[in-house]
């Protein structure tokens, strides 16, 4: 691996951190988090070891879908500051060695966007064809992504005198991306943010974005990638494509990987939860075996939770019910008939060993990890907030009013803080920074171990056979070394010993997360894992020049 490849393809081994500015830190105490607040936390994120921030939509918006309903692609919502404040954050992040990607939400606009406001007024509007209109909705209308809010994906607009398509909420009319003028407008948006200094985009709802009913849908995604490449050769496109692997693979493009650079692995994510529910590594192992091989210029993004529901839509109904019963026993914890509104720690009953095993596993899987803010301290959800808001509560900085997120009245915050056992009184950054045994320090240790293990992002992946169904053992072979990771899905009291006997060339085995010393006996290594135990073992040869 060449050093130039590593910097051009920085995202192959990045540690991503997603946050919503409005929920992170409110510097001017008006109740809403702002860019100035974020800029004061860049050192914190640097300390954690984050290498790329992913900023959720911060553009002017009615925020009827958490900002994924954009009214102006070229601005910053005044609640968060102004474009100057944004630029300061990007500059400071870069100075700290952190990159920044932003959400590209161009499958749809808000209905408050001037394009839509003009389009609906008249069939002669220059923006009419920016959207998709019909006199009558099709009879075989596809189901809405939000079935509890919308009956379908066509809505009659009185002013327009026609129906328009909306894949998501009715206030999010779909852009007509088959229209070259729309493509030009989208290119201008991409060009604008790249010029301002961002390092790429998290691309929203990609299958919907390119779906234009034609045969050459992927040409448009290739065109976007080419354009990003021309403006910023190292620009990343991290796409949201929640489809089975055989369909998802096409979104990486041809054998050179010329479409999305990265995609979230929703399949492995959903199978992970089934494995957790069953205390059996099997479901995840099946997914990892089925995971398509990627071009060198592509990467998987591994995650535990995100800002949406934990969707289980790719599991069978029985499997989904197993996960529901284990982790969302009450109806209020479920959403859209397919997902869970909770964060991981409450789902796992707050068991620190179980929680840590999941993060250790996620960081060790081939790909790049993506954290959702608050995961590094084990934040919980707000059980009574409606829908996806449950996981969008303010960041918990300290055990003080409003979790030290804001000095405003509690009533003025975008969402109330978590209460109960996962409240800021119990779970907060300040306390954890001072506690070497805390979740924060554990995640920081994972980030550091990931940083010195480039084989996780670049190496050859293999699942090692062993007899315990509750254990996943995988190996990553890089050009300079090998990492073997072991994870036990079985609970307390179910200790297992795994024998690794194909390590013959090696001379040393180093425990990257702990301080155990392993002795190799003629290439044979015995590793004992407690219930929910995890281990990263670097196999080193004599004369190895790597950091160990
Ligand atoms: C996916 C985003 O993650 C979600 O939050 C949003 O509601 C939809 N796309 C629509 O933009």
What descriptors fit this protein?
Oligo-1,6-glucosidase, domain 2; six-stranded antiparallel beta sheet; Immunoglobulin-like; 17 helices; alpha/beta; binds 1-deoxynojirimycin; 548 residues; 28% helix; eight-stranded parallel barrel
Instruction: State the strand order across the main sheet.
Output: 1-2-3-7-8-9-10-14
CATH level 4 superfamily of the domain at 459-540: Golgi alpha-mannosidase II
Structural class of the secondary structure composition? alpha/beta
Q: Main sheet, how many strands, which sense, barrel?
A: 8 strands, parallel, barrel
> Low-confidence parts lasting 5 or more residues at pLDDT below 50?
none
Number of helices in the DSSP assignment: 17
How confident is the prediction overall: mean pLDDT?
95
Number of strands: 22
What percent of residues adopt helix (DSSP H or I)? 25-40%
Distance between the termini: 18 Å
CATH class of the domain at 459-540: Mainly Beta
Descriptive account of the structure:
The protein is an alpha/beta fold and 548 residues long. Among the domains are: 52 residues, Oligo-1,6-glucosidase, domain 2 (Alpha-Beta Complex), CATH 3.90.400.10; 82 residues, Sandwich (Immunoglobulin-like). The chain is 28% helix and 17% strand. It has 17 helices and 22 strands. The chain has an eight-stranded parallel beta barrel. Strand 8, helix 9 and strand 9 form a beta-alpha-beta unit. Helix 6 runs parallel beside helix 8. The longest helix is centred in the middle third of the chain and has 17 residues. It is globular. The two termini are 18 Å apart. The model has no long low-confidence stretch (mean pLDDT 95). The chain binds 1-deoxynojirimycin.
């Amino acid at each position: 691996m060449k050093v130039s490849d590593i910097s051009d393809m920085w995202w192959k081994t990045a540690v991503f951190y997603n946050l919503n500015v409005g929920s992170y830190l409110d510097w001017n105490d008006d109740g809403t988090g702002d860019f100035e607040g974020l800029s004061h936390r860049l050192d914190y994120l640097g300390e954690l070891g984050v290498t790329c921030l992913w900023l959720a939509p911060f553009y002017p918006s009615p925020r009827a879908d958490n900002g994924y309903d954009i009214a102006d692609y070229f601005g910053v919502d005044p609640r968060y500051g102004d474009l100057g404040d944004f630029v300061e954050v990007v500059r400071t992040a870069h100075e700290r060695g952190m990159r920044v990607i932003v959400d590209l939400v161009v499958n749809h606009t808000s209905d408050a966007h001037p394009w839509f406001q003009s389009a609906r007024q008249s069939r002669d509007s220059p923006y009419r064809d920016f959207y998709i209109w019909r006199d009558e909705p099709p009879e075989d209308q596809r189901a809405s992504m939000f079935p509890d809010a919308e009956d379908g994906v066509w809505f009659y607009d009185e002013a327009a005198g026609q129906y328009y398509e909306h894949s998501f909420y009715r206030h999010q009319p779909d852009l007509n991306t088959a229209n070259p003028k729309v493509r030009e407008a989208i290119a201008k948006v991409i060009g604008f943010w790249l010029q301002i200094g961002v390092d790429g985009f998290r691309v929203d709802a990609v299958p919907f974005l390119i779906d234009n009913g034609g045969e050459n849908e992927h040409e448009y995604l290739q065109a976007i990638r080419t354009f990003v490449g021309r403006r910023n050769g190292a620009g990343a496109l991290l796409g949201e494509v929640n489809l089975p692997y055989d369909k998802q693979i096409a979104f990486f493009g041809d054998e050179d990987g010329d479409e999305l650079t990265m995609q979230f692995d929703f399949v492995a994510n959903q199978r992970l939860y089934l494995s957790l529910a069953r205390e059996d590594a099997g479901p995840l192992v099946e997914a990892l075996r089925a995971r398509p091989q990627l071009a060198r210029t592509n990467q998987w993004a591994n995650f535990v939770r995100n800002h949406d529901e934990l969707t289980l839509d790719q599991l069978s109904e029985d499997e989904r019910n197993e996960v529901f019963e284990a982790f969302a026993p009450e109806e209020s914890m479920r959403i859209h008939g397919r997902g869970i509104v909770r964060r991981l720690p409450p789902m796992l009953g707050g068991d620190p060993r179980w929680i840590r095993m999941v993060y250790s596993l996620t960081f060790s899987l081939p790909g790049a990890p993506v954290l959702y803010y608050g995961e590094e301290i084990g934040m919980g959800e707000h059980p009574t907030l409606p829908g996806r808001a449950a996981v969008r509560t303010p960041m918990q900085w300290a055990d003080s009013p409003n979790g030290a997120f804001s000095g405003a009245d509690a009533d003025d915050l975008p969402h109330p803080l978590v209460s109960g056992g996962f409240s800021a009184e119990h779970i907060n950054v300040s306390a954890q920074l001072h506690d070497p045994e805390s979740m924060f320090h554990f995640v920081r240790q994972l980030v550091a171990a990931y940083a010195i293990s480039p084989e996780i992002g670049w190496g050859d992946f293999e699942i090692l056979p062993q007899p315990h169904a509750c254990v996943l053992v995988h190996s990553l072979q890089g050009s300079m070394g090998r990492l073997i990771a072991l994870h036990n899905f079985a609970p307390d009291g179910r200790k297992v010993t795994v024998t690794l006997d194909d390590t013959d060339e090696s001379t040393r085995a180093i425990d990257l997360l702990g301080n155990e010393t392993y002795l190799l006996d003629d290439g044979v290594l015995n590793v004992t894992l407690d219930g929910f135990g995890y281990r990263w073992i670097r196999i080193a040869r004599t004369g190895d020049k790597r950091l160990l």
